[in-house]
Design goal:
The structure holds 2 protein chains of 2 kinds. Chain A is mainly alpha-helical. Chain A has 23 helices and 2 strands. In chain A, 73% of the residues lie in helices and 1% in strands. In chain A, helix 2 crosses helix 18 and helix 8 packs antiparallel against helix 22. In chain B, strand 5, helix 7 and strand 6 form a beta-alpha-beta unit. The longest helix of chain B has 27 residues. The chains are: A mainly alpha, B alpha/beta.
Chain lengths: 504, 337
C-alpha cells in the first residue's frame, strides 16, 4: 500500500505536473470566489484544453482546480455574505457576522487553516479506504439515503434553538420548494406551471446566491454604512489568531472533517449537506448555541473543514462506479473518460498511480490555496470597509452575472432575484435561512429514497429497520432528538446535587 | 383619339421619376437579400458553429461531442470553431427545443439521444418534431442487455421467467421518461417476464449500482456499461439484445426468439434545425463523416472503449422513422408501465 501512495507522490512531484497543479489552483481560487462559477465551470472550460495533455498531467490540473475552489468560495462568503460555491453558504452564517465586527482576518485565517486540515484528514481517510471503496459505496442504498436525509433535517431543526417554530416553518418552506419539478419515481411534473426551466426543480446555486448575497445586499442598502463599521478592528494580526483558533477548537475541526469525509463518500448527497450538517452538529454540541449566527468562529471552522474533507471522499463513488457526488465530479468524470480512464470497479486496480497522484494533487492544492488566501487577507479584508453605496451595486451585478453564467439561463437571474427577496424577508423577520437550505437540498433525496425503499421492500416499512446502517442511523436520530432533553435533565440534577452539598 | 391626345395619355401614364426611385427602392433589398443568402451559402461556414449537447457536462453525450468537435473543424471549408455548448434541462428537451428554433443557417447543430428524444415527444408538449430536423449523420449506437449482480442465483433469462411466475422480477431503472425505462419495459414484455420497475435512479451509473447492491433482481442497460461492470466482477450478462450476440454464454435476440429486441438501441444522431439548405447540409454531413474515420477520433474511441460507427444523413433519417414506428407500437405498454 505504502509503495502505491509513494508512487502517486513521486509522479506528482515533477516540474510539469507541479506547474499544471499551480495553474489549476489559481484558476480554482478565482472560479471559487466568483459566485455561480465554481469548480464545475472551471473544469468544463478546461476539459478541451486537457485533450493534448498526458492523462496524469490532466489529473494534476483537475486536482489543482478542485482543491482550491472551496478556499476561493469561503473568501467571498466571509467578506460579502456571497457564497462562491453552494457549500460555502454555511460559512456565510458566522463568517459574515465576523466580518461585520471587523474580524474578517480572523475568519479568513480560521477558514484557511480549517480548509487545509480538513483536506489533509479527508485525504488520509480516502487513502485508507480506497482499496475497499467499492464495498463502501454498496453499503448505502435508498433506505440509508432516506434515513441520512432525515438525520440531516433533524440536526438542522434542532439547531434553531430559541426559534424552533420559525425554524420548522422555514424547513417546511424548503421542503415544499424542493418538491417542484419532475417526479423521478412516478413521472410527471409538479408545480412547474408549464415552465421548462423548473423541470429539474429549483436550481440550487442561483437560489443560494439570492438567499445570501442578494438578500444581504438589500439588507445592507436599507441599513446603510459598510459591511464593517469597525475600521480599527481590521487588523492583520487577527489572521494569526484565526490560525490558532482552529487548533484551539480541534474537536470542531475533527468533527467537521469526519462529517465531510463520510457525507462526501455518499453518492448524490454533495458538499452542501456536508457543510450544513457539520455546522448543525457543532451548534448542537456547543455549550453556547445562541452565539451561532452572530459571529462564532466555530461556525466558520466546522463547515470549512467539512467542505475540503468531502472533496477527497467524493472521489470514492466517482471512481468506483462513475457516480458523481456533485456537478464538479460529473465534469471530472468526463475528463477521466476523455483520457481513456473509464470509472468502474477496474479503475482502482488499473490506474492506481494516477488515482493516488490525484488525491495528493487535491491535498497539495488545498494547502497551497489556503496559504495564498492568507497572503491576501489584509487587502481582502479592506472590502468590508467599502461604503454600501459602492459595494451593493457591484456585488449585485457580480451575483446576477454569476447566476446567469452557471448555464447561461436568464431564468437563473429571475430565480436569484426571487430568492433574494425571500432571503431579505427572512432576515427582516428573523427566520433562519439554514433550515430552508438544508430542506431544499435534502427534500427531493428524502422523498425519492423513501419511495424507492418501499418498492424494494414490497411496501413493508421493515426495510428501514432491518439493515445495519439503517439501525445505526435511527439510533443517531433518536440520540440527537433526546440529547438536549437528557442533557438538560443531567445538568439540572447536577446543579441540585451541588446546591445541596453547598448548603451542608 | 388624336395623336396629341395619345401623346398626352402616354405622358400621363408614363412612369415618373418617383415611380422609378420607388421601384429601385423595393427591388434592391430583395436582390440584396437573395444575393446575401446565396453568398452565405457560398461562404459557409462564415462564423463559429454551436454544437448543442442537451445534457450536462461530463456525461456520455458530452464526451462524444467534445471528442469530435475539434476534429470536425478540420473538415469544414473555412476556418471556424465548433463550440460544444451544454443546454441541460428537462431531460434533454430544452437543448433540442433550442436547436429546433435556431436559425437554419448551419450555425447550430446538436446531438440527439434516440429514442430518448422521441419518448419525450410522444409524451406530449415536447415542442419539437423529430421528423422535421435536418439530419447530418450518426455516431453509432449501443445495444442493450440484461445483467444481474455477480453473486445472484439467477443464471439465465429462463430463470427470470421462472421467478416472474411467483413474483414480479424487480428491475432498477430511471424515471418513466428515461430511455432505460422504456428499454426495460419493452424488453421484459418481449421476453415474457412479469416486471416491477424500481424507478427514480438519477442516471445509468446509479441504477446499475442499485442492481449490483441488490435493490433489484436485474437491470437492463447498454452493453458498454454491462461489459465494464462484468470486467470488475460486479455484474454478469445474461443476454444481449443484439441480433447475433457478442457475449459468450449469454443469449441474444435470435436465440431468445425475439428479433424485435434488436430494435431496442441507444442511437447518437447529429442534426440541425428544420429547413437547413441542402448545400449546407451536405457540407456538414461530409465533415461529420470524415471526422468519424479520422485517426485521432478512432484512437480516442479505442482508448475510451467506445463503439463508433458512421451513419450517413439518410441512414439517420431512416433510423428516426424506424424508431418512431417501433416506439409508437409500444406506446400502450409504456403508458401502462
Amino acid at each position: 500500500m505504502l509503495d502505491v501512495w509513494l508512487g502517486g507522490i513521486q509522479s506528482l512531484l515533477q516540474v510539469r505536473e507541479l506547474m499544471f497543479l499551480a495553474l489549476g489552483m489559481a484558476i480554482g481560487l478565482m472560479f471559487g470566489a466568483i459566485p455561480g462559477l465554481g469548480g464545475a465551470t472551471a473544469l468544463a472550460l478546461l476539459m478541451p484544453l486537457t485533450y493534448g495533455l498526458e492523462p496524469f498531467t490532466a489529473l494534476a490540473l483537475s486536482g489543482g482546480v478542485m482543491g482550491a475552489v472551496p478556499m476561493g468560495g469561503s473568501i467571498t462568503a466571509i467578506l460579502l455574505n456571497t457564497p462562491g460555491t453552494a457549500p460555502n453558504a454555511a460559512t456565510c452564517l458566522d463568517g459574515y457576522p465576523l466580518a461585520q465586527q471587523g474580524k474578517a482576518g480572523l475568519a479568513i485565517g480560521a477558514a484557511a487553516s480549517a480548509n487545509a486540515i480538513g483536506g489533509i484528514i479527508g485525504t488520509l481517510s480516502v487513502l485508507a479506504v480506497l482499496p475497499i471503496a467499492k464495498d463502501l459505496v454498496l453499503l448505502f442504498g435508498p433506505p440509508e439515503f432516506f434515513l441520512l436525509a432525515t438525520f440531516g433535517l433533524v440536526t438542522t431543526a434542532t439547531a434553531s434553538r430559541g426559534k424552533v417554530l420559525r425554524g420548522l416553518i422555514s424547513g417546511g418552506l424548503g421542503l415544499m420548494i424542493s418538491f417542484i419539478g419532475y417526479n423521478e419515481v412516478m413521472g410527471g411534473e409538479r408545480f412547474t406551471f408549464g415552465v421548462d426551466y423548473l423541470w429539474d426543480g429549483v436550481h440550487l446555486v442561483p437560489a443560494l446566491i439570492g438567499l445570501f448575497a442578494v438578500a444581504e445586499m438589500i439588507n445592507l442598502s436599507v441599513r446603510g454604512g459598510a459591511v464593517s463599521s469597525n475600521a480599527g478592528a481590521v487588523k492583520i494580526t487577527s489572521m494569526a489568531g484565526g490560525l490558532l483558533e482552529t487548533f484551539k477548537h480541534w474537536p470542531t475541526v475533527l468533527r467537521g472533517s469526519l462529517v465531510g469525509t463520510v457525507v462526501g463518500a455518499i453518492p448524490g448527497v454533495g458538499g452542501v449537506v456536508a457543510a450544513f450538517l457539520s455546522y448543525s452538529m457543532t451548534v448542537q454540541a456547543s455549550r453556547n448555541p445562541e452565539s451561532f449566527g452572530k459571529g462564532n468562529i466555530q461556525g466558520v471552522i466546522a463547515p470549512e473543514a467539512a467542505i475540503n474533507a468531502k472533496d477527497g471522499s467524493a472521489l470514492i463513488p466517482t471512481l468506483a462506479f462513475g457516480i458523481p457526488g456533485g456537478a464538479e465530479m460529473a465534469v471530472f468524470l468526463g475528463i477521466l473518460v476523455l483520457h481513456g480512464m473509464q470509472p468502474g470497479p477496474m479503475m482502482l486496480s488499473q490506474h492506481q498511480t494516477e488515482i493516488y497522484g490525484l488525491v495528493w494533487a487535491l491535498t497539495l492544492s488545498c494547502i497551497l490555496a489556503s496559504f495564498i488566501g492568507l497572503l491576501f487577507v489584509r487587502p481582502l479584508a479592506m472590502i468590508t470597509l467599502v461604503d454600501s453605496k459602492i459595494l451593493v451595486p457591484i456585488v449585485l451585478c457580480v451575483a446576477m452575472v454569476g447566476s446567469y453564467a452557471i448555464d447561461t439561463n436568464i431564468e437563473n437571474v429571475v430565480l436569484t432575484a426571487a430568492f433574494g427577496i425571500l432571503g431579505y424577508l427572512m432576515i427582516r423577520f428573523d427566520y433562519p435561512r439554514l433550515t430552508v437550505v438544508i430542506a431544499l437540498v435534502l427534500g427531493a433525496t428524502a422523498e425519492r429514497s423513501f419511495h424507492q425503499s418501499l418498492m424494494i421492500g414490497d411496501g413493508h416499512y421493515s426495510v428501514f429497520f432491518t439493515r445495519t446502517i439503517c439501525q445505526i442511523l435511527i439510533a443517531c436520530i433518536v440520540a440527537w432528538l433526546t440529547w438536549p432533553l437528557l442533557g438538560g435533565f443531567f445538568r439540572t440534577r447536577k446543579s441540585v446535587v451541588l446546591g445541596r452539598e453547598g448548603r451542608r | 383619339m388624336g395623336p396629341g391626345e395619345r401623346r398626352h395619355h402616354a405622358r400621363k401614364n408614363a412612369p415618373t421619376r418617383r415611380d422609378l426611385i420607388a421601384a429601385v427602392g423595393l427591388a434592391a433589398p430583395a436582390l440584396l437579400l437573395s444575393r446575401t443568402a446565396s453568398a452565405a451559402q457560398e461562404d459557409f461556414p462564415a462564423k463559429d458553429i454551436t454544437f448543442i449537447i442537451p445534457y450536462s457536462a461530463g456525461g456520455g453525450f458530452d464526451n462524444y461531442v467534445r471528442a469530435i468537435a475539434p476534429v470536425m473543424e478540420k473538415y469544414l471549408p473555412n476556418k471556424v470553431s465548433i463550440v460544444p455548448t451544454n443546454v441541460a434541462s428537462g431531460n434533454g428537451s430544452r437543448g433540442i427545443n433550442q436547436l429546433y428554433r435556431a436559425k437554419p443557417d448551419g450555425a447550430t447543430i446538436g446531438i440527439f439521444n434516440i429514442p430518448g428524444m422521441f419518448i419525450l415527444q410522444q409524451e406530449g408538449g415536447a415542442g419539437y418534431d423529430l421528423a422535421k430536423f435536418t439530419w447530418l449523420g450518426g455516431m453509432g449506437h449501443d445495444n442493450y442487455g440484461i445483467g444481474v449482480a455477480w453473486g445472484s442465483p439467477i443464471k439465465s433469462v429462463a430463470d427470470l421467467r421462472t421467478l416472474s411466475q411467483t413474483r414480479p422480477v424487480k428491475f432498477t431503472t430511471t424515471g418513466p421518461e428515461g430511455t432505460a425505462y422504456a428499454a426495460t419495459l419493452i424488453g421484459a414484455e418481449l421476453l415474457g417476464i412479469k416486471a416491477q420497475l424500481i424507478t427514480g435512479y438519477k442516471g445509468s451509473s446509479d441504477y446499475v449500482v442499485g442492481a449490483i447492491r441488490g435493490d433489484g433482481d436485474a437491470v437492463v442497460t447498454t452493453l458498454p456499461i454491462l461489459r465494464r461492470m462484468r470486467e470488475g466482477q460486479a455484474l454478469r450478462i445474461l443476454a444481449t439484445f443484439e441480433s447475433h450476440g457478442s457475449e459468450k454464454d449469454a443469449g441474444d435476440a435470435t436465440t431468445l426468439g425475439q428479433p424485435e429486441l434488436g430494435q431496442i438501441v441507444l442511437e447518437r444522431l447529429i442534426g440541425a434545425p428544420p429547413g437547413v439548405p441542402t448545400r449546407i447540409q451536405a457540407i456538414l454531413a461530409d465533415a461529420l463523416a470524415k471526422t468519424m474515420t479520422d485517426p485521432q477520433v478512432v484512437a480516442w474511441a479505442q482508448t475510451a472503449g467506445v463503439d463508433l460507427k458512421t451513419e450517413t444523413a439518410d441512414e439517420a433519417a431512416r433510423i428516426v422513422r424506424d424508431q418512431a414506428a417501433f416506439f409508437t407500437k409500444w406506446k400502450k405498454v409504456l403508458i401502462a408501465g
